[in-house]
Specification:
alpha/beta; Rossmann fold; 2 domains; seven-stranded parallel β-sheet; 14 helices; globular
Length: about 375
């Protein structure tokens, strides 16, 4: 049986993490699959993994970036110095253990999920002690016209065989930018298809994701403030955790929205599904987004979505004016206006709901699984 190794950073909650677990589950139906993971940040992976998939953790450490930043912020310089030394040690282990794994792996195909890992794969796969594996790198992040990042990815792909992007727009871009590599498009997939859909009978809004600045949750709260001032019956659920958690809590308090906005923190799939079933609209205010699996998840529950167009991946999922709205120029007032108009127009809301669920059907686990299995089959045939 052919072996596939998938290289990842951790198996905590996150879009990349959900994606590589879905891939591992899909590919394990025909191949031996091993997840080579740098950090064991949680005892149990955030997403369900098929028992046939082997997990190999490469280190016993976890990143301490936030600890280091907190010491600096609080002017605890001695502790910051010690934390900095610890960071250097962790980064060394991150690099050296991944290097060692790549050089000693007996996998027929090695898949990298992040550009920093791809850099190591690109450099050391030629020194693999068995026959040279086929290499694939995945691109989950949108470049957002950042030339420094684009150059970094191009350099990392110098000796890589295939580049798989999660959006067609990214695939078109890198096909032109990196002509020396075979570029392909396979989107992320759902790992769950609900039998029930939202009744859309309330003014509950929802947004899910990592609470970091690039996800734009501070702007989302501003949008909600505009809505609340016009209609105090609206409620917003934010599900996720991250370094902006406390800042968002303070902002909600300062705007007197604590009775209408709830940050739930990290939650499991069952909890999230219950919240989705009780929501009528999904809002996304991300500054950048390569795909946006949360939009597909919302659509599977028949929930229309409204997003800022800066979340480039949303353009591939939201059919503007048919399944939701794309808001240009990060116009908070316009987003609030679209929410008000859609909630008040039940017929249009139901139409958008139907269209959203139909779009989500294109990203079911089985649909995307077949695309991955077909790709691997073709790659292995081409090698013969």
């Amino acid at each position: 049986m052919k072996k596939i190794a998938i290289l990842g950073l951790h198996l905590n909650y996150g879009g990349v993490e959900q994606s590589i677990i879905n891939q591992a589950n899909a590919l394990s139906e025909r191949y031996e699959v091993e997840l080579a993971i740098t950090y064991k940040m949680v005892n149990t992976p955030a997403f369900a993994i098929n028992s046939k998939v082997k997990i190999k953790y490469l280190t016993n450490c976890v990143p301490n970036r936030e600890e280091f930043k907190n010491y600096l912020h609080n002017k605890k310089f001695y502790k910051a110095f010690k934390s900095g030394l610890k960071s250097i040690k962790i980064l060394y282990q991150k690099y050296s253990t991944m290097k060692k794994y790549i050089m000693s792996s007996n996998a027929d195909i090695i898949i990298s999920s992040r550009v920093d890992i791809t850099k190591i794969l690109n450099k050391y796969v030629s020194k693999n002690k068995s026959s040279k594996p086929i290499t694939i790198t995945e691109e989950h992040r949108h470049h957002n016209n950042d030339m420094k990042y684009i150059k970094k990815l191009k350099k990392a792909c110098k000796n890589i065989d295939y580049l798989v992007s999660v959006s067609s727009e990214l695939n078109d871009f890198y096909t032109k930018e990196i002509p020396n590599i075979k570029c392909l498009y396979i989107p992320n997939s759902l790992n769950y298809w609900p039998n029930k859909v939202s009744k859309l009978n309330n003014k509950n809004l929802i947004s899910i994701g990592r609470l970091s600045r690039e996800k734009g949750f501070a702007d989302l709260i501003d949008v909600f403030k505009i809505l609340h001032d016009k209609d105090s019956e609206f409620h917003l659920d934010i599900i996720g955790d991250g370094n902006e958690f406390n800042n968002l809590k303070v902002k909600i308090q300062d705007l007197n929205l604590k009775d209408n906005v709830k940050i739930h923190g990290f939650q499991n799939r069952e909890y999230i599904n219950k919240c989705l079933l009780n929501s009528s609209l999904y809002l996304m205010c991300s500054h950048e987004e390569s795909f946006g699996i949360v939009l597909i998840e919302a659509g599977s529950f028949g929930i229309p979505q409204i997003a800022f167009s800066t979340a480039q991946g949303a353009k591939e999922i939201i059919d503007n004016n048919k399944s939701g709205y794309l808001i240009d120029n990060r116009d908070k007032n316009l987003m609030a206006e679209k929410v008000l108009n859609l909630i008040s127009n039940k017929e249009l809301l139901q139409e958008f709901s139907k269209n959203s669920r139909n779009i989500a059907k294109n990203y079911t686990f089985n649909t995307i699984k077949m695309r991955w299995l077909k790709l691997i089959e073709n790659i292995l045939k081409a090698k013969k």
